[in-house]
Design goal:
- With 91 residues, the protein is mainly alpha-helical.
- The protein has 2 domains: 44 residues; 45 residues, no CATH class.
- 60% of the residues lie in helices and 0% in strands.
- It is built from 4 helices and no strands.
- The N and C termini lie far apart (51 Å).
């Protein structure tokens, strides 16, 4: 297999946080990125959320408080939205 390289531009703070999280899970940043790229290219249900940092922080705190995973919260919200789709109004 030929090695291909990916160049990313991120702030030093983001880089250091990402590195720290990877190390805490005994993974290298390269391993995490390779896994993400491999799973992203074959996944039909991968969702990238574009939310501001404050909402994301509050959501993470809520999940810790309720002892649930963030992914389970997203699944729950999406499921409820589909069950109540006729009632949803975003005007």
């Amino acid at each position: 297999m030929k090695d291909n390289f990916l160049k990313l531009r991120v702030s030093e703070e983001e880089y250091n946080k990402f590195q720290s999280v990877c190390e805490s899970k005994n993974k290298t940043m390269s391993e995490v990125l390779r896994f993400f790229i491999a799973s992203y290219s074959i996944s039909e249900n991968l969702i990238l959320l574009n939310v501001d940092k404050d909402i994301l922080k509050k959501s993470k705190e809520f999940c810790k408080e309720k002892k649930i995973r963030f992914n389970d919260l997203v699944k729950y919200l999406l499921d409820n939205a589909m069950k109540n789709k006729d009632k949803l109004n975003f005007k």
